[in-house]
Amino acid sequence: MNNAEVAGKIIELCGGKDNFVSVENCMTRLRIKFKNKTLIQIEELKQVPGVLGINDADTFQIVVGPGKSTKIHEAIIGILGEEYNAGTQEENGTKQSDMDATIQQNKAQARSHTNGRMKSFLTTLSNIFVPVIPAIIASGFLQGINNIMTTNATNVAVSDGIKASGQLTNTQVVLQSWHLLQVSTVFGIIGTAVFSFLAIYVGVTSAVQFKTDKLLGGAVGAITLSTALPVLGLKAGEGGLFGVILGVWILAEFMKLFHKIVPDILDVVLTPTLSLLLTAVVYFLTVMPIMGVLSDGLIKGILFLINESGVVGGFVLSALAPALISTGLHQGLTPINLQLIAQQGSTQINAFQIMSNAGLIGAGLALWIMSRKQQVRDVAKAALPATFLAVGEPTLFGLVIPSGFGFITASIGAGFGGMMVSLLGVKCSALGAAGMSAIPLIANGKYLQYLIAYAVACVAGFALTYTVGKIRRYE
Question: Is 458 a known active-site residue?
């Protein structure tokens, strides 16, 4: 089936066009909101070619794999109409009033419980960072390739005693001799483009989430990067990305207040001006200093736990990764990883997370070999290559979770990989996809060590899943 046919089938099995509220996509999944979930024919939906798995969370998620998610989303919007695009709804405020009331009621009920509030917070955090992830992946991947080139060039320059020449460093002299200086420069520019201005992008996506002006949200992020901040006793980036998110929330509250009290004739000038000015004052006086202390404390605490817990901590962190991914809670680690990279130059947390990919590959291969069901084998053929190269969700939702026991054995397999990550000191210098796509992201040239840890997790996941599967007579 082509993308349009898959889109049409999804709409048909999900209660028809009238049952849809909004549709959006992330890297591997379609995220859909419905009026009535009972109309969804879940088992029939799982049989649609190209559908790799189902995850019924805050939004109903259909896993179709990397690349496919964007194309099928476009095809669905082409059938339903642009008004069903979640991004367009956020910009234009065109959600149906009755559904809006229902959603607000559900949110109110969730907020009445502690776990509901936590889930709401993590969902908000996820919604802020998901739109930025493609840019982070692209920038991180190119930055990783450039790191490989420059590291090798630096090693050659040092071993051969090559000196700087003119405006070129010794590393650049070697790169020029390899005819890679221009390539390295371009990759370096693109590689730092996202990470250097990430606060601005997060400001924009936070503004969308808090339903306020996007460019003003970007401005809040931009002021945290100013080189003039030391005059105020602050430093650029102080407070981290959590500080930016809090600042944009404050901006949104000021905007709401001034929209109510400022006369209409002056609203277009005074509301954004006063909101941004007062947000900046509050931000400089309270948010940056307080969030700076909290952010530094959080990073120091995480590093202490990683360093003190050793291989046990590595096992636990990696074994928990599949559960975090399946619930979407892994998005909450994105700002922590980025803060570690900004402060330390690398992050080991992301290396622990990536091991989930290897555990899933091992478990998925075992399930593929043991299963006699054609549907399982068809899903495996589509999901495993995608997981090996980049992302784990197709195998997680398409193979491992449906098997039941495979989820546990894959998680344990990932844990063994985490032990090796801790033992071998594997870290990531940038964020991006997992699997083999993560090789350029590995810090300090420890590519072989990463592959060893990956292989250990894969073998452990395979052996555990195959053994348990045979005991349970899995077919």
Answer: no
